[in-house]
Amino acid sequence: MKFESVKELQLKIDAYFDECDPHPELKVSYEYSQITVTKKRKDGTEYESLEDDRSVKPTSKEEWVVSYQKHYTITGLANFLNTSRETLINYEKRDEFFDTIKAAKDRVEEQWENLLIGSNATGPIFNLKNNYGWRDKTEQEISNPDGSLNPYNALTAEELRKLADR
After folding, report:
1. Where is pLDDT greater, at 59 or 157?
2. How far from the centroid of its chain's Cα atoms is residue 96's Cα?
3. Pair type for strands 24-31 and 59-66
């Protein structure tokens, strides 16, 4: 088994959500010094242009930034755990891991549900219908007084003959 204990799995699941949530990150950017280069246009006129001086090592600049919120996904969780989505779902079938996996899936579903509030809900609707059993169909049960679903069971023999003669 990939995960020996519920505690081990829970710690890794928590790390996935922490990685997705906004958090401080050290961003490193590199800047080259600029040099002025004289260039010629097709018509022969010259002009000056600033370009990076690639002959000199760039200077690095470090700054702390807050990362953006990444969407939680079951596949993203599985990848973070270095396993497949199918393996993760199979862990849910084991009694000792059921609550842990179910809670993680519920947290993912909640984030997608919250996205329904935005102006572009098409993606979240698709995800919730295909991965979480959401439906927007209405189900109606229609039956006759005798309990059958066949509307002709409620008709007399005479009424059935009249329908057949039409």
Report:
1. 59
2. 26
3. antiparallel
